[in-house]
């Protein structure tokens, strides 16, 4: 539960806006790390989150990859879940009605293996008319499936075509989730902007691998998987920084955020909001904790709003002169 007295909360304005949608605070939970909210609701007040991004949903239910699907690594974890999910019919009939009971905003994350499937899933969710569903996050960046996922996310013209097709189907927030597994995120951020996305979110997991030296076999059933957690925060920050320079779209920063000072780094670099992922497996109330800590940290710094921090990175003149 939130530990901040109401009066302290009122002194700090945590609200932010993305694509015309106002969020009470900028701390969201990341897709695939919070299920559909029901487990975490036993441990914390999920209404205190700025938004819940639901597990990627596809047209049909998916069992995901064979075990082993999770390996702990230094300051992080590798996963190859493979987009296990309940399928869009159950999502609409059971998961969205549950989430509609909470006073927070819901962003439905969609994964698919063709433009047509992305469109059908979005339309099915759109028709559910869930009152607190404010938009979609389009997963074009999952490294753990053979079909779809990264094959979209590493091809900028395809990202543009997909985003344009989805834009025609909804007036709700359209957020495209980008992969770090490319040399440069610039063409991808710009493709999203050209095609009419409202925002981009980054990063998804970083391709990684772990080997058992005794059996000399890969630890994950898919050989490689996606690295997440504190180990990837510097990569995520650098990608957000690059995207900030490439586009005017609002950015949602994701990657290794464990506390409010981590979140603040993303705001300074230019993110309007952040998502907490792997830390939910350590503390199911991680998002609510970070939100409370953020209030304390802002007050300590003499700030009264989170908005005033966004994009305030100072790059010293001598660094600029050297081309950085
Ligand atoms: C177990 C696990 C499952 C995930 N499943 C999804 C998913 O279904 N869709 C998606 O867009 N991202 C998924 N992600 C990626 C996270 O949403 C997030 O982008 C990534 O983990 C980086 O953030 P973090 O370091 O805070 O975890 C998953 C991550 C983990 C660890």
Provide the gyration radius in Å. 19 Å
Unreliable stretches (pLDDT < 50, length at least 5) are none
Number of domains: 1
- In terms of DSSP E residues, the strand content is 15-25%
CATH topology, which one? TIM Barrel
Order of helices and strands: HEEEEEEHEHEHHEHEEEEEHEHEHHH
List the strand order in the largest sheet: 3-4-7-8-9-10-15-16
What molecules are bound to this protein?
A: flavin mononucleotide
Gap from first CA to last CA:
43 Å
Describe the structure.
The protein has 324 residues and is an alpha/beta fold. It has a single domain, classed as Aldolase class I (TIM Barrel), CATH 3.20.20.70. The protein has helices at residues 6-11, 88-99, 115-126, 150-153, 156-167, 186-194, 233-246, 260-269, 279-282, 286-300, 317-321; strands at residues 16-18, 21-23, 27-29, 51-53, 70-73, 76-79, 105-110, 133-139, 173-177, 199-202, 206-209, 211-212, 217-218, 224-228, 251-254, 273-276. It has an eight-stranded parallel β-barrel with strand order 3-4-7-8-9-10-15-16, surrounded by six helices. A four-stranded antiparallel β-sheet has the order 5-6-14-11, with no helix packed on it. The chain has a two-stranded antiparallel ribbon with strand order 1-2. Strand 7, helix 3 (115-126) and strand 8 form a beta-alpha-beta unit. Helix 6 crosses helix 7 (233-246) and helix 7 packs parallel to helix 8. The protein is globular and about 50 Å long. The mean pLDDT is 94.
């Amino acid at each position: 539960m939130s530990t901040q007295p109401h009066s302290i909360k009122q002194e700090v304005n945590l609200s932010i806006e993305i694509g015309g949608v106002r969020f009470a605070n900028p701390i969201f939970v990341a897709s695939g790390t919070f299920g559909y909210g029901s487990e975490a609701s036993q441990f914390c007040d999920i209404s205190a989150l700025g938004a819940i991004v639901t597990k990627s949903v596809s047209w049909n239910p998916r069992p995901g990859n064979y075990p082993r699907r999770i390996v702990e690594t230094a300051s992080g974890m590798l996963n190859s879940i493979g987009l296990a999910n309940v399928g869009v019919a159950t999502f609409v009939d059971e998961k969205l009605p549950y989430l509609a009971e909470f006073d927070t905003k819901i962003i439905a994350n969609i994964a698919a293996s063709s433009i047509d499937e992305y469109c059908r899933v979005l339309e099915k969710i759109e028709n559910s008319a869930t009152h607190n569903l404010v938009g979609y996050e389009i997963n074009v960046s999952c490294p753990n499936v053979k079909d779809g996922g990264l094959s979209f996310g590493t091809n900028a013209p395809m990202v543009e075509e997909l985003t344009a097709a989805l834009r025609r189907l909804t007036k709700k927030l359209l957020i495209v989730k980008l992969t770090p597994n490319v040399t440069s995120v610039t063409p991808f951020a710009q493709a999203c902007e050209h095609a009419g996305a409202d925002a981009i979110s980054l990063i998804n997991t970083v391709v990684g691998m772990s080997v058992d030296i005794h059996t000399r076999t890969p630890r994950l059933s898919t050989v490689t998987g996606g690295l997440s957690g504190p180990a990837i925060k510097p990569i995520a920050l650098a990608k957000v920084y690059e995207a900030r320079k490439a586009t005017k779209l609002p950015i949602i920063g994701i990657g290794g955020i464990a506390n409010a000072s981590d979140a603040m780094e993303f705001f300074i670099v230019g993110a309007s909001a952040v998502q907490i992922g792997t830390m939910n497996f350590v503390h199911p109330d991680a998002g609510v904790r970070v939100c409370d800590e953020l209030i304390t940290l802002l007050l300590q710094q003499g700030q009264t709003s989170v908005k005033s921090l966004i994009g305030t990175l100072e790059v010293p003149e001598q660094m600029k002169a050297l081309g950085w």
